[in-house]
Amino acid sequence: MNTKFTLGAAAALAAAGLLGVATLGMAQDDAPTTGTATATVTDATTQTTTAGNAAEKTGISVPADRRMTIWRDPNCGCCDAYADYMEGEGYQITRIDDRDFDKTSISVGVPKEGLGCHLAKVDGYFVSGLVPAEIVQRLTRERPDVIGITLPGMPRNAPGMAGKSGTLKTYAFADDGVTVYSNE
Question: What pLDDT, on the 0 to 100 scale, is given for residue 163?
Answer without folding.
Answer: 77
